[in-house]
Amino acid sequence: xxxxxxxxxxxxxxxxxxxxxxxxxxxxxxxxxxxxxxxxxxxxxxxxxxxxxxxxxxxxxxxxxxxxxxxxxxxxxxxxxxxxxxxxxxxxxxxxxxxxxxxxxxxxxxxxxxxxxxxxxxxxxxxxxxxxxxxxxxxxxxxxxxxxxxxx
Length: 152
Fold this sequence. Notes:
- There is one protein chain.
- This protein has four helices and eight strands; from the N terminus they run αββββββααββα.
- It has helices at 2-11, 78-92, 103-108, 127-149, and strands spanning 17-20, 29-33, 45-49, 55-58, 63-64, 68-71, 115-117, 123-125.
- The strands form three sheets. The protein has a three-stranded mixed sheet, with no helix packed on it. A three-stranded antiparallel sheet has the order 4-3-6, covered by helices on one side. A two-stranded antiparallel ribbon has the order 7-8.
- Strand 7 (115-117) and strand 8 form a beta hairpin.
- Helix 2 (78-92) packs across helix 4.
- The protein is globular, with a radius of gyration of 18 Å.
């Protein structure tokens, strides 16, 4: 395996980036492409396909196809994104193909997330708890996969 990875790195002259589209498979990655005239979009974003209502998390830099909304927050982590993607998938599935997931519709969509009081007397998203929930889910899946792989 190490030899294969070394050969790939030696023959690859430029980095390849995912082209994220409305596709329903492969985490919305249509294919991998080389650098373009514009810099790729920074990773750590949740993407929503306008036409297909696909919701995925992109952890690495990527190029976005047409009809793709990007949701970002400085406190977003891969673990918290796991939770938010699941919630957003449920929320946008009510949009029919006819109405699509416009940015205005996504912005108006309300989902239940943990909150904490802020200094102004309101509430803000509790990003720490979202991250912890995602970590628990990842750990649980990892344990179950490990149990399954290590079955005698």
